Amino acid sequence: LGRKPTESESYAARSIIDPNPRDSSLRYQFVSSLHNSRSASVKRWDDIRSELLESVDTTYVVQLISNLETLMQGAPPNQRFLYQMEIDRLERIHFAVDSLHSGAYSHVELHQYAIDNPIYDDINMGSENFVVSSFDHFFYRYPTQYELQSAKRMVEGFRDVLFLQSGEGKGDYLKIFFESAAYSEGQVRYVFSNYLFREPRSSERQYQQALFEADDDFMGMRARVMSTDEYFFQ
Question: Is this prediction's pTM over 0.85?
Answer without folding.
Answer: yes
